[in-house]
UniProtKB/TrEMBL annotation, chain A:
This is ABC transporter permease subunit. The chain crosses the membrane at residues 94-116, 123-141, 147-170, 191-217, 269-288, 295-318, 338-356, 414-431, 437-453, 465-484, 504-530, 574-602, 614-631. The keyword Transmembrane helix applies. It is found in: Cell membrane; Membrane. The lineage of its organism: Bacteria, Bacillati, Actinomycetota, Actinomycetes, Kitasatosporales. It comes from the Bacteria. The keyword Transmembrane applies. Residues 143-322, 456-635 form the ABC transmembrane type-1 domain. Keywords: Cell membrane, Membrane, Transmembrane, Transmembrane helix, Transport.
UniProtKB/TrEMBL annotation, chain B:
It comes from the Bacteria. PROSITE patterns: ABC_TRANSPORTER_1, ABC_TRANSPORTER_2. Residues 46-282 form the ABC transporter domain. Belongs to the ABC transporter superfamily. It comes from Streptomyces glomeratus. This is Glycine betaine/L-proline ABC transporter ATP-binding protein. The keyword ATP-binding applies. Pfam families: ABC_tran. Residues 396-418 are annotated as: Disordered. One of its GO terms (molecular function) is ATP binding. InterPro entries: AAA+_ATPase, ABC_osmolyte_uptake_ATP-bind, ABC_transporter-like_ATP-bd, ABC_transporter-like_CS, Gly-betaine_transp_ATP-bd, P-loop_NTPase. Keywords: ATP-binding, Nucleotide-binding, Transport. SMART domains: AAA (SM00382).
Length: 646, 418
């Protein structure tokens, strides 16, 4: 009886859904029945027909040559890009010199005191420890280089983002125009931003800073706009009823009311800037990212780890401090506290300078590269393969490649090109509207037109495999976390740390474990996307209406029945969001996997950059954008995602 | 609609002639091409649902006109969706009216430019909101001083002035709290103090107490009554709560679907509802606490003018019931030593039972003209009959309420009036 009552409404709903879905599929089948024979008859081939590609490499190459030829003479470069580039170089240089002039003691003191003012004593201690650890690992100078680049990029991003957000927050029209652009920018992999800036600015610090700005500004703009728009209407009305001018309203009410969102935007911008500043080592950012990049290129895991740890520490410290600053609360001391902090910083910096201890003392470094590499060697010797019964990590990787990645890739590439488009259309239409389906199909077709159909499908196969693994693990862990408080408490700090780490860092351990190739790239993608999927799943399940759950319990449903019949159906939006986030995050890392032998589109980008063959890189970059767009639309439920989960 | 005893405040003294707000032919239509609705008599006459269907427009306020007199509490009451909140926002153009005229002290509000309108909002009309509308990032003191800050008053001076109002609304000791640390009632006191701090000519209240618990709400209502008694400030008060309207209002405009269906004193609304809608609305009102003896009295015979308890013509019927029950004889309605008429138990019961049709109709004019012409003849017979029939039912609860030794109801006022 109990089950009957509980299932009755449920049985009806999917029934209805199926009806609508069947309708959509039938319509699609009808359209396909007309178009496919036509297309097949004209361009019969398994892969994308050659007749339908547009070779962009020649025009792109000539464009890139033109830029290189004219960089020093054309007025556009002389009077605009040249100034931008110089300004960026100068300001990064200036910040870097200030950091060096403050010395390690001064910088550490300044960071700790800043953390103390913004987030309290505990985080101040953590910050000091993190900076000292960077020094101990012998990474003080690269850390300062990365920090200098970050400071400039974050300032520009925040300024740009806040201005855009202000415009979008105050004007409906700007908001409507800006929103789809910002939404789309957030689903694109970081790699896609690199090549256009390189085309204009060449490899170097300006390109790195500008790529970082473009990547990191959207969250600030987005959250500022949302904060301004989300303000309590009645408060604004009350403020208006007292006779405020528009300016007074903005300064005394709207901006303060949006404070929380703007600080969240600052936090996200800083985290994305760090992530990008590290990746931008590929285009000459220098600093910590460059050390990791060089080390990975020579599969020197020890050196990569020595540079990777400071990145992680920096990420955690920046996230916690800015997060705590947004979490409300006055620190004791008020303005006087800031003054004390400033005085203390100057005093420490001066003392260090007088003592002649500006640079990190060489004797204080702990070389970890050597022992780590020994450990990795030992692992390679003992765990890589041939471990009785379980096999070795390299064996697993090889098996994963032969049994999963290869068949999926072969299958995708064997499918006739039009059937791939058909599948994309069906998936996107089932979950969204015909509009999203159209965008998805066009995006997918664009990869073919660009002439990178095969590498795109290769990347796609890696994404599919990684997403499948991520979802199985993520849903299982998420369900477990939603059902057990204790498990969730254990999991939370782990997720917190994992979600703050930049994508790049995940490549280090997988190279240590699995060597290079496609399997490690997939593994890194899984590890990167997993925390977001787990978190969204657990939250979605926990936010299921308690009344519905209670009524199911009161009818005597077992806990499996509750999960299957109440929690999962009601958490459907969250689960779909988890899939979408999973896909977007996996794609970002699979692309970066080109650096560790993932091949496909990511490799094309890296190759293009390394060889100065911008045309190849740009085409691959455009294909990445298309692929990202397609994957996002295919997995996007009808309502827009709230905000980036990671 | 449970109506807790609305402790009626004393009616405000004779209103000045010049109205503070004068509204005429006011329309507010939301939707595409809103301006055509009021212009087109056919569209203007359509009921709400049909109008939405035909034009996509919603008429929130339809052809509303009234005057708010100086020093009175003017209540606009209606259920949600009746347009009352839109109406009050139109007064200071927080919502721009579609057509019609609004004048404050004879000055056309709709013709004001932005600077002049700001001036109006800063100095002449201040508003109190249902959900308080406080700035969460400011302390109580700074919230109260906010209106002064907007006017450009210096920090020290505005804080000093705001501190006076902290005391006035009873928030001493909470100056440095944030709104999130206050209870709902305290927050609304902040909202009230903020409005008072700019010393406005008119206070506008938009359902200020709807979000509060019943007990707190009563405290706040009494606070408003007290403020009004002390300062005599003109108030426009929006509410959906009939007992609140009856308790606070000198005059009440009852709105339905954007129109004013009846405008009058509480006594007129309760005593002679304009239509069935109003009648249904006021059905459960304890009439004896709203109606005055002026409307219930009859002409006195010669010997009746000489003895019996005396009540003021503005005393409520429930006060008269107590006086009559205590002495056992009809009460004389005395105005400045002149006997206007008498109320006996039959008359009083008639009011309680609501079986005295037409008695009110003449009340205003009759009372003003004097006791001699007070028209009772036509209805007397019927009224008494009706009263007699219903008396049996009414006696048990209503009479007892006033006369039981322990019963508090009405005694206090009676003491003050008799």
């Amino acid at each position: 009886m109990a089950t009957l009552t509980a299932t009755a409404p449920k049985a009806k709903l999917p029934g209805l859904l199926r009806h609508r879905a069947v309708g959509k599929l039938l319509l699609l089948a009808a359209v396909a029945a007309v178009l496919v024979p036509l297309a097949h008859g004209r361009w019969a081939s398994g892969a994308w027909p050659h007749a339908l590609t547009v070779d962009l490499s020649k025009p792109l190459a000539s464009a890139s040559n033109w830029v290189i030829d004219n960089r020093d003479s054309h007025p556009l470069f002389l009077y605009f890009f040249g100034y931008v580039s110089n300004a960026v170089v100068l300001s990064v240089r200036a910040v870097y010199l200030v950091l060096l002039a403050a010395g390690w003691a001064g910088v550490t003191a300044a960071a700790a005191l800043l953390a103390w003012r913004a987030a309290g004593a505990r985080l101040a201690l953590g910050t000091a420890a993190a900076f000292l650890a960077c020094g101990l690992l012998g990474m003080w100078v690269p850390t300062m280089q990365t920090l200098a680049l970050m400071v400039v990029a974050v300032l520009v991003s925040v300024l740009l983002g806040a201005l855009l957000g202000l415009a979008a927050g105050l004007s409906d029209r700007t908001f409507r125009a800006l929103r789809p652009v910002l939404d789309t920018m957030q689903v694109l992999p970081a790699f896609a931003y690199l090549l256009p800036v390189v085309l204009v600015f060449g490899i170097g610090v300006p390109a790195a800073v500008l790529a970082t700005v473009v990547y990191a500004a959207p969250p600030m703009a987005r959250l500022t706009a949302l904060g301004l728009r989300g303000a309590d209407k009645e408060v604004l009305e009350a403020v208006e009823s007292l006779g405020t001018t528009a300016r007074q309203r903005l300064v005394t009410a709207r901006l303060p009311l949006a404070r929380r969102e703007m600080l969240l935007g600052l936090n996200q911008t800083i985290m994305m800037a760090l992530s990008m500043a590290v990746i931008a080592s590929v285009i000459g950012a220098g600093g910590l990212g460059d050390r990791v990049y060089q080390a990975l290129a020579s599969v020197d895991v020890g050196a990569a780890l020595a540079a990777g740890i400071p990145i992680v520490l920096l990420a955690v410290v920046l996230d916690r401090v800015t997060g705590a600053a947004g979490a409300e609360g006055e620190r004791p001391g008020g303005r006087a506290g800031w003054a004390y902090a400033a005085v203390a910083t100057v005093a420490v910096a001066l003392a260090a300078r007088l003592a002649g201890r500006l640079e990190w003392p060489g004797a204080w470094t702990v070389p970890i590269a050597e022992p780590v590499n020994r450990a990795v060697d030992w692992m390679t010797a003992h765990l890589y393969s041939g471990v009785p019964y379980v096999g070795g990590t390299a064996d697993w990787a090889a098996h994963f490649t032969t049994w999963i990645l290869d068949p999926v890739r072969a299958g995708l590439q064997w499918l006739p090109w039009w059937s791939v488009l058909l599948v994309v259309a069906a998936l996107a239409w089932l979950i969204g509207t015909w509009r999203t389906a159209l965008t998805a199909v066009l995006a997918m077709a664009a990869t073919g037109v660009l002439g990178v159909w095969k590498p795109s499908l290769d990347t796609l196969s890696q994404v599919l495999a990684a997403v499948a693994v991520t979802l199985v693990l993520g849903f299982a862990t998420g369900i477990a976390a939603a059902r057990s408080d204790r498990f969730e408490r254990l999991l939370r700090p782990v997720l917190d740390v994992f979600q703050t780490m930049p994508q790049f860092v995940y490549l280090i351990p997988v190279v240590a474990l699995f060597g290079v190739g496609r399997a490690p790239a997939v593994a890194a993608a899984v590890v990167y996307a997993l925390p977001a999927v787990v978190r969204i799943t657990a939250q979605g399940l926990r936010q299921v209406d308690p009344a519905a759950l209670e009524s199911a319990r009161s009818l005597g449903a077992t806990s499996a029945q509750q999960l299957r019949q109440v929690q999962l159906p009601l958490a459907r939006p969250a689960l779909l969001l988890a899939v979408n986030q999973g896909v977007v995050l996996v794609l970002a890392v699979v692309i970066i996997g080109g650096l560790v032998g993932g091949g496909a589109l990511g490799y094309d980008v890296v190759f293009g950059l390394a060889q100065g063959d911008l045309a190849t890189g740009l085409v691959a970059g455009a294909a990445i954008v298309c692929l990202g767009l397609m994957l996002d639309r295919v997995t996007q439920p009808t309502e827009r995602r709230a905000k980036k989960g990671a | 609609m449970a109506l807790a005893v609305p402790t009626r405040k004393a009616p405000t003294g004779t209103p000045d002639d010049a109205p503070v707000f004068s509204v005429d032919g006011l329309w507010k239509v939301f939707g595409p091409k809103a301006a055509r609705i009021p212009e087109d008599p056919e569209l203007a006459a359509l009921p709400a649902a049909e109008l939405r269907e035909r034009t996509g427009c919603t008429a929130a306020v339809r052809d509303v006109g009234f005057d708010v007199r100086k020093g009175e509490v003017f209540v606009v009451m209606g259920l949600s969706g009746s347009g009352k909140s839109t109406l009050v926002r139109c007064l200071t153009r927080l919502i721009e009216p579609t057509t019609g005229s609004i004048a404050i002290d004879g000055e056309d509000v709709r013709a004001m430019d932005r600077a002049r309108l700001r001036e109006l909002r800063r100095h002449r009309a201040a508003m109190v909101f249902q959900h308080f509308g406080l700035l969460p990032h400011r302390t109580v003191l700074d919230n109260i001083a906010y209106g002064l800050e907007i006017q450009g008053v210096g920090r020290a001076e505005r804080r000093e002035r705001a501190a006076d109002f902290v005391a006035k609304v009873g928030l001493e000791g909470l100056e440095q709290r944030r709104p999130s640390q206050l209870s709902g009632g305290q927050r609304q006191r902040v909202g009230l103090a903020r409005a008072l701090a700019v010393d406005p000519e008119v206070l506008l209240f938009d359902e200020p107490f709807s979000a509060l618990d019943p007990l707190i709400r009563r405290d706040m209502q009494e606070e408003v009554v007290r403020l009004h008694r002390e300062e005599g400030r003109t108030m426009v008060f929006i509410t959906h709560d009939l007992s609140e309207a009856l308790k606070l209002g000198d005059r009440i405009a009852l709105m339905r679907d954007g129109r004013i269906v009846q405008l009058g004193t509480p006594e007129e609304i309760v005593g002679s509802p304009a239509d069935d809608y109003v009648r249904a609305f006021v059905r459960d009102v304890p009439r004896e606490q709203v109606m005055t003896v002026r409307s219930a009295m009859r002409a006195a015979s010669a010997q009746e003018t000489e003895d019996g308890p005396a009540v003021s013509p503005d005393a409520t019927v429930s006060e008269a019931i107590e006086a009559v029950a205590r002495t056992g004889s009809p009460a004389r309605v005395m105005d400045h030593g002149r006997c206007l008429g008498v109320v006996d138990h039959e008359r009083l019961l008639g009011v309680v039972a609501g079986t005295e049709p037409g008695a009110i109709a003449g009340a205003e004019q009759g009372a003003v003209a004097g006791s001699e012409q007070y028209a009772v003849a036509g209805t007397e017979q019927g009224a008494v009959d009706g009263a007699g029939r219903n008396a049996a039912a009414a006696t048990g609860q209503d009479i007892a309420a006033g006369t039981e030794p322990g019963a508090v109801t009405g005694t206090e006022q009676a003491k003050g009036v008799v």
